[in-house]
Each structure stands twice: as structure tokens, then as C-alpha cells.
Amino acid sequence: MTRRILFAMGLAITAAFAAVSCKGPQQEEPQEDPVVAPTASVEINSLDRTSVTFTITSDSPGDYVWALVPETEQISSAEDLFAKGNSGMFNSSQKVEVTYNELEGGNEYSLYYAVRKINPFVYSELYVESVSTDFPYEEMITLEKVTTNAISYHIEKPEGAKAYRHMIVDYNDFLYFQALVGVTHSSYLSAFGLGDTKSKTFDYEWVQLDGWDNYPTYFYSDTKYLIIAGESESTEIDSQVSDENVRFIEFTTPKAEVCPHKVEIQVSNITSLTADITFTPEEGVDRYRAYVMSEADYESYLFEGEEMVRRAVIGAWDDTSTEYKGTQSLSVSGLHPDSNYYICMVVFDEDMRELYIEKVFTTTEPVGPAPEIAITEIETEEPWNSASLNLKLKNATSALAFIHTKYAVDELLNAPGNEDLTMEVVISTNGIPFSAAEMSKATSADGANLMFSNLSPNTEYVYAITATNSEYVSTSYVHYFKTGAEPVIENTLFDKLKGEYTATITDVDGQPHTFDVTITDGVNDATREAYRAQNVLVCLGFDACGVTYHSPEDLIKKKWAKNEEEANRNYGPKWFLEVDEFDNITTYKHAVASSSFDPVNNVEIVDYSAEGEDPMASFNNQTIWFKGTFNRYYASKEQWIMQATTLIHNVDFDEETGTITVNPVKHYKTWSAIGEMITEYPGVSQSKNWYGGSDQKVLFCGNSPLVLKRKAQTAQASIAPMNTSLQIPAVKKINVQETRRIIRK
């Protein structure tokens, strides 16, 4: 007889005895309400090959639990499910929506769920619902599996296609290159995608290598990625993919569960340059990765999101140089004095759960002397186009410096938005580092003699230098100097060339252009003095570029120039002719690209290391430059692209006919290993740069010599405004760029 039956019999006997023995009316014992188990139901809201969303509903308050397991795996009871599954509390509606993104396509699963009342626990029955991810491939790209560190996807080759390309890219990387160089999904895929010829499922764990140079895209938890695929334009697997054939999907890897185990970080023996760090992990920590970074680096990562810091710490999965096990002691060097440093860690257990930890420490003040800089000017034989400085450094281990016109530096510092820009930043951005030999000379008792050539006459320059000692303490110094006036050349051509002309030139489309040009010695006393000192005449007007002529007075009146000096520099459009003592006439040759003569091919070989300083015009948010221009076909881009360089053009003058001819320049394209011949004709560009960058817009690309024919009975004339206008964005900077880290680890 069971305990339950015996217990029931005992109760019956006791009750019968009481009934016989008790006197008075018989009373019934109170009865407890029966315990009713809760019930639950589930509704599948959405389902695909990798994810499912469902809603669990209960008829009573309490909590819930669920688990998605392969159909071959069995769970025995609701109590067992609450011990092993994913649980949570119901809200007031007694409903909860759950999304699970770690299914794998082509499989059968069982969705177990249950609910319970609390206080005391009363369990529902155990419910189970079948879930199938065996769906047909209806799209070109189908995700098959996405975990924290592994990705699988299927490419269904389009009907009739011979080949296709595919790839994974970090979503933030793609957005960065899109903003930087304007890449599209198709161009990115065409450059870096992998090729194949058959419908296939691709499985990747930790990393995918691209098809260009096996550059890795690593997989991290809680990170957004982009899969791109497209039909190739030919049977070749590495052929281009057009915009109309490209497909892409975006997805985010699951966030890793939190590792419950920690690592203690201790920092000791902190100096201005070094520190000792000890890591002590708790039991349960399998391994950890650590990265010591400056406050600036930390903030740059953090600016892109907290996950970027974690990714920077993890780095490349196959690089274990920053991965540790057990207790470790490290000595860190190369730090800077009085600076904050972040010790950032990602801790892993055996289940690949992650925990991010960070600790900040500060280095001590520097103890050594700061660098000292002394500069002395040395006389040169040609002070109008060269300068020499003696430089002495003390307490310095490195240095960097640059030389530029004071006008350009002041323009940069005073440009809108640069109110907080300092010379230290300008030097660090534009400065050229000293070699070991240069540092040895500069720190010697005699110092280093620095020689600068190809300078513009009568121009103020800035030599700016920053020297740094072994404790990374820096001292900056700015030295100003001015070149002398160029020896004045007496030549009758200065008077013979002056006058009014009709200019003609043909553009790259074969269209002729005719406009007026006045050649004079200046437009006011200041410019006449400056131009005569440089042995140049100014040519006023270049109507073919579409910019209306404005005099210095116009710029002052319209408040397009702050002062007379700026107005005298920026008025125009203007260009210059230089005359030497041998009756040679050229376009103005100061501070332009230098060249050397190739006697074999009878052409100039151009070195583009220098750039012109004087703009053709700069006012009303428009800046243009007199350039040598050419139109070149780029096979890679399948288009013609106009480009411009700063060159010297030889000029012919026929005094008898009153004709001036600005000739083209023929040279080898030095950036080509083949030595492609380039012919450049006079033109106009909005860019100061010689190269065809994104900021370059050629306003006029010539395709013939520029010919000026003297007008009949002309005298040196006043300048009348021209009749066309074009707004051109101004270029206000000199090689000062903000840098951005690209995290592709």
C-alpha cells in the first residue's frame, strides 16, 4: 500500500471516530482551491533560412522559457526546459516577442516553450512546435548561417549567367570608401570580389579573403556586414560587374554573451615613458587580448562606436601577438609624458563569451630639458630666388620642417573654420622628417646649412620646424625671411609687347574662342613696381574660361579682398609674360614645376614637385590658375579626362606683324613607366594641384597655341569689365588633411 493510500485511510478513520464521539451539529472542514496550471501558445511571425520571430502568450502572469534545438534533440519536461532554456518575465499583456538569428538553412528544428506561475512555482505542460528552414533559393544571395564569428551564404547563379562575383565587406569600411572615392556596390565588387561559375554555398569562419590581394575581412560579434554579388559581364570570373547586375544584403552578427569571469589589471613603475602592467585572470578565463592605446587613439575609435574599440583590441584573429593566457606581466615603452593611456581588454571563456574591460593610467611629467632651436640667415649669390639658413638643434632626437610662402600660411591659418588651427599642427601635417644624417649635422656644434632654391623674388617666406627630444617633448619655431628683388633687366621688348590684342585659341572640342587681351606693366603703382622687379608684363583677360575680369579696385569695393595687398594678388583673370636679357619670352616661370631637357627625344621631362603661387584670379569664392592643359583617354575608366599642370610655355613674338604666340609644351608623362608623350596647351583650371584629383575642374582646355594679334592703332588701354560670369568654389588649403584610421582587422 502506498504512502498516499495509507495517509488517506488514516484521515477516514479519524473522521469517522470524530463523527461518533462529537456532540452537537456536524461541521464541514474548509476546502482549498484546486491549483490550476497555466497554459501557453506560440505564433510564428516570420521565418527564413537563418532567423525566426515568434510570440509566446500565456493565460496567467509569471515567466516563460523557450529553446530552439535540432529536431533530433529531446527535452523531457517544462522543469527541465526552465533549467536549460532562455527565460524571462512576461509584461502586463502576458505576451513576449522573440527573435532568434542563429538558425542554419536547410534544417529541421523543434521550438520548445513553457510558462509557469510564481510563488509557488506551477508549471505548464511542455509545448513543442516544428520549425523548418528548408526554403528554396529564390534570390541570388541567401544567408545560410550567421553566428558571432562565422558566416555562411548561398549564391544562386542567375539563369543564363556564365560566371559571377561575390564578397563580404565590413559595412563601415564600405561607407568610408564610398564617401572617400565614390565607390558603388558594383565598382567595389568588380575590384575586390571573388569569382565562381556554379551555384554554391560559401562557409567562412573568422575571416573572408577578398579576390584582389587576399585582404582579410574579419568577423566580429555585433558588427554590421554587407554581402555583394553580381553576374559577370563575361565568362571570366574576374570580369566587371555592372550596376544593373549587382545584388547586396546587409546583416549584423549576433552580440556575444557576456563572459562572467574577469581579469584584474595592475599598473606599476610608471615613468614619463614606460609602465609595467600585470594581468591576473579569474578561474574560467580561457584567454584574453590586450591593447594599450593613447587617449587620442582611444577617442578616435570610440568616435566610430564602442564596438570599434573592441574590434581594435581583438585585431586579426590569426594574430595572437596580443593574446595571453594566465597571469602575465608586461613592460610598455614609447609612451609620452603627462599623458593618459587606456589599457583595453577583451576576455574570452571556452564558450566564446566576451567581456570588455578597460583601465586608465597617466604617465609622469618629463624630467629632461626641452629641445632648443637656433636659426641664422646666410648670404647667397642670388638672393632673389634662393636662401640659406644655418640650423642648430640642442636636446633633440628628431625634427620635421617645411618652407612655404608667408601669404599661403597666413591664408591657411585665417581661413574660415581654422580658428583653432595652430602652427604646430601645420608643421606636423606638412613637415618633412629629418634623416639621421641631417639630425647629426643639425645637432653638431656647427649646425646644418640649409639651401633653398627656385624661390620667388621679393617674397616673404616661412621656415617652420618642430624638434622633439627623447621624452617626446617638442619645441616649435617659425623663421621668417624675404627674398630680394630680381635684377631688373633692361629690354626694349617690355615696351614693344604692351598694347591691346585679339586672342584666338581652339578648345578640345574643336571650338574656336576669340577674346580681348591687354598687355601692360601693371594696373596700379604697387603692381607696376612688383612686376617690373620680376621682369614680367601682365596679360589681362582670358574670356574663354568664363570668368569676368575684376580689377583690384573692384575687389576692394565689393569686399572680396580684405586689403590692397590681397586685391593686388587676387584680381584678374590675369597671366604673365617674363622677358630675359636674351630676348627670350616665357609665361611666368617662378615657383612652377621644374623640368630637364631630354636631348634624345628633344622634349622636356617635367618634375611636378613645385606649384605656382600666383592665382589667375581669386575672388567671390572663385579661384583659378593659368595651366598647361591636355585631354587624355583613360582606358581603365573608359573616358576622356581633362587635366592640367603648372608649366612654362615658350612665347614667340613677331614684331613686324604684331603677333604673340604662346606655344604648347611637349614632355614625357613622368608618372608613366612607358614614357607617354603629352602635349599641353594654355588653359585654365580651378585647382592649384598639378594632378587630376577630385578637386580639379578644368574650366578651359586648350588644343591649339594661344595667338594674340595686335589691334590696329592701339595704345596701352584701360580695362573694361568682361561680360560673362561663372562661380567657382575656392581652394583655401595647403596640404593640411585630417587623418582617419581604417579598422579592417
* Count of helical stretches: 13
How far do the termini sit from each other? Answer: 72 Å
Helix content: 10-25%
Number of strands: 47
The percentage of residues in β strands lies in 35-45%
Mean pLDDT: 85
What is Rg? 39 Å
- Derived structural class: alpha+beta
* Total domain modules: 5
Strand order of the largest sheet: 32-33-34-35-36-42-43-47
Main pleated-sheet profile: 8 strands, antiparallel, barrel
Low-confidence stretches: 1-24, 591-601, 603-612, 670-674, 690-695, 714-745
Shape: elongated
Could you walk me through the main structural features you see in this protein, from its secondary elements to its overall organization?
With 745 residues, the chain is α+β, with helices and mostly antiparallel strands. It folds into five domains: 40-132, Sandwich (Immunoglobulin-like), CATH 2.60.40.10; 141-252, Immunoglobulin-like (Sandwich); 263-362, Sandwich (Immunoglobulin-like), CATH 2.60.40; 372-482, Immunoglobulin-like, CATH 2.60.40; 493-710, no CATH class.
Q: Could you list some keywords that capture this structure?
A:
single chain; 745 residues; alpha+beta; Immunoglobulin-like; eight-stranded mixed β-sheet; 13 helices; disordered C terminus
Quick rundown:
15% of the residues lie in helices and 39% in strands.
